[in-house]
Specification:
With 179 residues, this protein is an alpha+beta fold. The protein has 2 helices and 7 strands. Strands 1, 2, 3, 4, 5, 6 and 7 form a 7-stranded antiparallel β-sheet that branches. The longest helix is centred in the first third of the chain and has 20 residues. The chain is elongated, with a radius of gyration of 23 Å.
């Protein structure tokens, strides 16, 4: 009687292994983000612009408040949408119906060609890092970033390689600054 139970148990385990191994979904794929809840691009046509540095232009749409402004060493919480000037959304803190900001350390914002999943790191460029410096809490700003300060130097294997020649538009609102 004992060997029969053992055979049945082994057969059941083998069947379960084969049954679960035949799943057709790829466990390493990520569903694409839903951008239907992302707000329209900020209208910066009437805003005054200033050049942060060559290739990075900022438009302040709403002044921030407080004594502190963003520095490279700060951790900030912000709402952000990154799109091309043609309108292709690359990253947004509003994707998939979310309404919470993202938190980043400004000094850690460097392009990383190894990013392969949807995360704030997809939006990291030198232009973003430079354009955040000086913002205050509550400030709303649009950054226009040239390809040279954007994704120009990413390798062709990078997730954002298709945007290497694109001028980028960042719509940003800083909600918190932590030293």
């Amino acid at each position: 009687m004992q060997p029969t139970v053992l055979k049945l148990f082994t057969l059941l385990l083998g069947f379960l292994f084969i049954f679960t191994s035949c799943d057709t979904t790829d466990p390493f794929s990520f569903p694409p983000p839903d951008f239907s809840t992302v707000p329209d691009p900020f209208d910066f046509s009437d805003a005054e612009s200033f050049e942060v540095e060559d290739g990075v232009t900022a438009y302040i749409l709403q002044e921030g408040t407080g004594d502190f402004s963003v520095t490279v060493r700060d951790q900030i919480t912000m709402f952000i949408t990154l799109r091309t000037m043609e309108g292709d959304i690359i990253f947004s803190s509003f994707n998939d119906g979310r309404t919470s900001p993202v938190t980043v350390t400004v000094g850690n914002i460097v392009p990383d060609p190894r990013v392969f999943q949807y995360s704030p790191a997809l939006s990291y460029t030198d232009g973003l890092r430079k354009g955040l410096v000086g913002m205050k809490i509550g400030e709303v700003r649009t950054l226009i970033v040239s390809p040279e300060k954007g994704f120009k130097d990413l390798p062709s294997s990078s997730v954002n390689a298709q945007y290497r020649e694109s001028t980028l538009q960042y719509d940003i609102q800083v909600s918190e600054i932590s030293n």
